[in-house]
Amino acid sequence: VAKADQTITFPAVNTQVATATVALAATASSGLPVEIAVFSGPAVVSGGTNLAFTGAGEVRLVASQAGDANWNPAPDVTHIFSVTKATASVMLEGLAQTYDGTPKSVTATTVPAGLAVDFTYDGLASAPTAAGSYAVTGTVHDLNHAGSTNSTLFVAKADQTITFPAVNTQV
C-alpha cells in the first residue's frame, strides 16, 4: 500500500502591528501535527502557535508536515506579510527656558511610557545655547513604535544687573 498524500490548511496572516501577538492555526488533512516556523523576518513562534514580533518588517512563515509511515510529506505553505510599528504619542516638555550660557535641551514623555526620543533643534542634533526661538522635533527611536511631534523652544533673554559702586565725594 502506497503512502497517501496530504495537504496543509494554514489561514493567511494579515498586516500586523509590532506590539501584537497572533494565535496561529494550521492543520494537515492527515490529522498529523503541523509545524509553523519563521523562515525570515522580525518574528518568533513560541508554543508552536503563538506569534510575536521583534520589530517592523516583512515576515515569512512556513507551515510544514513531514509525513509518517502512512502519509507523504505535505507541500509547505508559506505566508508573507508586513509588520508595522505601533503608533506612539510624544509630548515635548521644557519648551520655555531662560538663557544662562548652557545648552537648553527639551525632554519628552511618551505613550506608551519610557520610549527613547531623539530631538532636533532647527534641524540640528545639538541643543541651542543662545536666546531665541528654535523649531524642535521629537522622534521616537524604538524597534516597535513610531511617532513624532513638533513644537517651538523659547529661550528667553536673561535678566542682568549692573553693579556700580557709589563714588565718594571727590576734590
The number of helical runs is 0
* Uncertain residue ranges: none
Radius of gyration using CA atoms only: 30 Å
- Quaternary structure classification: single chain
Structural class estimated from helices and strands = mainly beta
Count the strands? 17
What separation lies between the terminal Cα atoms?
Answer: 131 Å
Helix content: under 10%
Shape: rod-shaped
| Largest sheet, spatial ordering of strands | 2-9-8-5
Major sheet: 4 strands, mixed
Note the run of SSEs as H and E: EEEEEEEEEEEEEEEEE
Query: What is the typical, i.e. mean, pLDDT?
Result: 97
Task: Produce the secondary structure layout.
Layout: E1 8-9, E2 16-17, E3 21-23, E4 27-28, E5 35-40, E6 43-46, E7 50-53, E8 57-64, E9 77-84, E10 86-87, E11 89-93, E12 96-98, E13 107-111, E14 117-121, E15 132-140, E16 145-146, E17 148-156
Parallel strand pairs: 2-9, 10-16, 12-17
Antiparallel strand pairs: 1-4, 3-7, 5-8, 6-7, 8-9, 11-13, 14-15, 15-17
